[in-house]
Amino acid sequence: MLELKGICVSFDGKEVLRDCNLTLPEGGRVALMGPSGCGKSTLLRVALGLQKPDAGTVSGRPGRTAAVFQEPRLLPWRTAEENVNLVLSDNASTLPNARKWLGRVELEEAAGLYPAELSGGMQQRVSLARALAFRPELLVLDEPFKAMDDALCQRMLCMVGEQLAGVSLLMATHSEEEARRLGCRILRYRDGAFFETGD
Question: Is the confidence at residue 148, as pLDDT, over 90?
């Protein structure tokens, strides 16, 4: 079980998170909602171990964790299939499997293209395919569907939902529909932390 207790984070003297607590059971799903800049991404980074909090503790982080950030973070000198293959074996034997994952995000025909040849939304889908191909115990998503049109977003939500059996999910989103579609418990931002409102 992933547990964040008493998390406090400030940037340049401005308090972003204050005494923030979050519990994510194995296989649980939580969505953080709140206005831009309230600290959703910061809390995700703390959960991933990428941001050290000023105070508080993080425990129970699974060994196999994958994340999709707001920026795709692909290696520009690797093709789409090679970026996905990085989490499989990074050798030719698993390239067919990497292409299958690209097929799941409707990008199989873009397998040989480099990130600079892909739109922002396509890059984000490559990043999503890479995260899912890793078969994580914990999947962290930071608004991964925002560059997609509604129809594509719906298809990607369906696909991601099919891959989540037994996987813990922690996501940040502005869309209540996305959170509901993925079966998330919604925590809303208030006064420096995130709370379940019961709505």
Answer: no
